[in-house]
Design goal:
single chain, alpha/beta
């Protein structure tokens, strides 16, 4: 499967017409999935999806976080990715806990940790 990316918005070139032209060229060249990272709202996403005939991937790490899977499906999106957002979320949690320990001597972050039994079960069920 070939996924083709039009990087305009990632590179600060917010030219939707050029982005669509690039995606259409990738589609014509045989790409299976089309991808324009950094589309941030549903209007842009709908415009891109309606301009091409191949499945469109949306990366949520730069999009409005209030957009839901149902919203994306209704817009015609066929593939959703999150990029490195989950790893950055984990790093933020560790950094916030470390700051709380250092600055306030607080361990209240412990209230939001996952119990060890759940962690173990996750790894056992992933086999």
């Amino acid at each position: 499967m070939l996924t083709a990316r039009a990087e305009n918005f990632v590179q600060g070139r917010r030219d939707l017409d050029d982005t669509i032209r690039r995606l259409q060229a990738f589609e014509k060249a045989g790409a299976d999935v089309l991808y324009a990272p950094a589309l941030w709202d549903l209007a842009l996403i709908r415009t891109v999806v309606s301009a091409v005939g191949k499945p469109v991937n949306v990366v949520m790490s730069s999009a409005d976080p209030s957009i839901t899977v149902a919203d994306l499906a209704a817009a015609g999106v066929k593939r959703i990715s999150v990029g490195g957002a989950l790893s950055r979320l984990a790093i933020a949690a560790v950094a916030n806990a470390a700051r709380a320990m250092r600055d306030q001597g607080s361990f209240t972050y412990m209230r939001t940790t996952m119990p060890s039994s759940e962690v173990k079960q996750m790894f056992l069920s992933a086999r």
